[in-house]
């Protein structure tokens, strides 16, 4: 479960490489998203000017005043002359067959692609890709879009550019994407479910992985900037949604450093980690310079389960910091964590706690925080107590009864077979038996 859709790209690529079956719940795969398909169409025309399907997709994206009649004329001219549509567009732009406005638009399109194609062999492909999206007006199109989806689309475009750094050229990247898109997914086989936290509401799984729990990513910086304290509370509710999707096993991951805009930047673990009930958390550490068990780029992991870990149980994800005072005190020795320690206040110091006999620092932001609500070090205390919230939710009686007919937006109609607090076991007509929270169904 990820906070933002752009995080899916890395997992999807790795799943395909490993031959691991997966399904994206609540939305399309990364490379099937509208903004990614548009960007890829631009790149394909630059790398291969004869790609007419790609050209048709973006010749009027963003809007350039080219109507269907003009595009049809470009298509017919290309077929009549036996040339690609890009070349036909350039020919029409220099003729008198079109009106001045569409002729000027086609002339600009042809000139742009000619310039980008010349830069293909000389300019770094990531820089070229950024230039294409900027100079074509595609990035500005989404920046000026006021829909709720626009910021996420811009994030996806940034992730697309970032992913290109792993390849030697634009053509090799396009070949990789073609392989990923051609990978067949067998819906009948067991698969890893990947989705955003928003899409996970109402669902439960035996084992859940929550990657990317770092300040700025979760809680998301945009939510803090735009929503302030209320934005932080909404992010906290999302964190609770993620944690409570796990029936038995929950693994939370953060990285020490993350590559952003071509540069490695140190990160600070999410403030939400210190809001987890301590007795149900075990911190996994592999004991090497790269952090947690199998965690890329210096990652660490928090592993938890309902009922916690029994005493003396060997942790399969590495030695726990609770068992090693030295390891525990040094695990957060990343630059970002050290900066947070250096800036801590007296209020933060009073929030140092003792876990299994070892001193643990809870990074805080002081009584006067940066406008994002009470931080972990605030003298106001922690805003949410995981234990109490979980208990209150599970003990809330459901307004439904066994046998009631209900409707779920994703699974359709079904009959309630069992009730556990506010958790319903429902036999859906088409989706089979599912367990969902009663807040996500209505009487049918």
What order do the helices and strands come in, and which of them pair?
Layout: H1 8-18, E1 22-24, H2 34-47, H3 52-58, H4 68-81, H5 85-93, H6 100-119, H7 125-135, H8 138-143, H9 150-163, H10 170-182, E2 192-194, E3 205-210, H11 221-243, E4 246-255, E5 257-260, E6 263-266, E7 281-285, E8 299-305, E9 319-320, H12 325-330, H13 335-342, H14 346-350, E10 353-355, E11 358-360, H15 386-395, E12 405-408, E13 412-420, E14 423-428, E15 432-437, E16 441-443
Parallel strand pairs: 1-2, 3-4
Antiparallel strand pairs: 4-8, 5-6, 7-8, 7-9, 10-11, 12-13, 12-16, 13-14, 14-15
Walkthrough of the structure:
- It contains 15 helices and 16 strands.
- The chain is of the alpha+beta class and 444 residues long.
- Among the domains are: 33-165, PCRA, domain 4 (Orthogonal Bundle), CATH 1.10.486.10; 197-280, Rossmann fold; 404-443.
- The longest helix has 23 residues, at 221-243.
Radius of gyration from the CA trace? 26 Å
The helical percent reads: 25-40%
How would you sum up the global shape?
elongated
CATH class of the domain at 33-165: Mainly Alpha
Which architecture of the domain at 33-165 per CATH?
A: Orthogonal Bundle
Count the helices. How many? 15
Class of secondary structure makeup:
alpha+beta
Distance between the termini: 29 Å
Brief write-up:
With 444 residues, the chain is α+β, with helices and mostly antiparallel strands. Helices cover 39% and strands 18% of the residues. α4 (68-81) packs across α5 (85-93) and α5 (85-93) packs across α6 (100-119).
């Amino acid at each position: 479960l990820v906070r933002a859709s752009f995080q899916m790209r890395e997992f999807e690529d790795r799943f395909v490489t490993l031959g691991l079956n997966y399904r994206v719940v609540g939305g399309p795969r990364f490379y099937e998203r509208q903004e990614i398909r548009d960007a890829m169409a631009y790149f394909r025309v630059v790398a291969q000017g004869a790609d007419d399907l790609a050209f048709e997709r973006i010749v009027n994206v963003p809007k350039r005043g080219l109507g269907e009649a003009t595009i049809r004329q470009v298509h017919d001219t290309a077929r009549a002359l036996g040339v690609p549509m890009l070349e036909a567009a350039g020919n029409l732009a220099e003729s008198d067959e079109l009106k001045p406005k569409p002729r000027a638009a086609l002339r600009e399109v042809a000139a742009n692609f000619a310039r980008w194609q010349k830069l293909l062999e000389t300019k770094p492909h990531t820089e070229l890709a950024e230039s294409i999206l900027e100079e074509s007006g595609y990035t500005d199109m989404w920046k000026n879009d006021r829909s709720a989806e626009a910021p996420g689309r811009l994030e996806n475009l940034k992730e697309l550019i970032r992913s290109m750094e792993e390849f030697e050229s634009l053509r090799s990247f396009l070949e990789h994407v073609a392989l990923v898109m051609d990978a067949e997914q067998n819906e009948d086989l067991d698969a890893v479910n990947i989705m955003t936290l928003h899409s996970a509401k109402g669902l439960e799984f035996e084992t859940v992985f929550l990657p990317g729990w770092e300040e700025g990513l979760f809680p998301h910086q945009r939510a803090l900037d735009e929503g302030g304290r209320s934005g932080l509370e909404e992010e906290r509710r999302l964190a609770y949604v993620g944690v409570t999707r796990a029936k038995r096993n929950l693994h939370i991951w953060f990285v020490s450093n993350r590559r952003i805009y071509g540069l490695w930047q140190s990160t600070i673990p999410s403030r939400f980690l210190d809001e987890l009930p301590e007795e149900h958390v075990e911190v996994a550490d592999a004991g090497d310079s790269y952090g947690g068990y199998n965690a890329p780029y210096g990652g660490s992991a928090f592993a938890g389960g309902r009922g916690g870990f029994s005493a003396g149980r060997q942790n399969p994800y590495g030695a726990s910091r609770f068992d090693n005072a030295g390891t525990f005190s040094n695990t957060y020795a990343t630059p970002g964590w050290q900066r947070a320690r250096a800036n801590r206040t007296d209020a933060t110091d009073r929030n140092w706690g003792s876990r299994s006999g070892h001193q643990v620092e809870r990074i805080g932001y002081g009584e006067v925080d940066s406008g994002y609500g009470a931080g972990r070090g605030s003298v106001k205390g922690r805003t949410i107590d995981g234990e109490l919230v979980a208990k209150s939710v599970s003990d809330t009686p459901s307004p439904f009864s066994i046998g009631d007919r209900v409707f779920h937006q994703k699974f359709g109609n079904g009959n309630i077979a069992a009730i556990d607090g506010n958790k319903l076991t429902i036999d859906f007509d088409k989706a089979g038996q599912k367990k969902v929270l009663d807040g996500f169904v209505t009487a049918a």
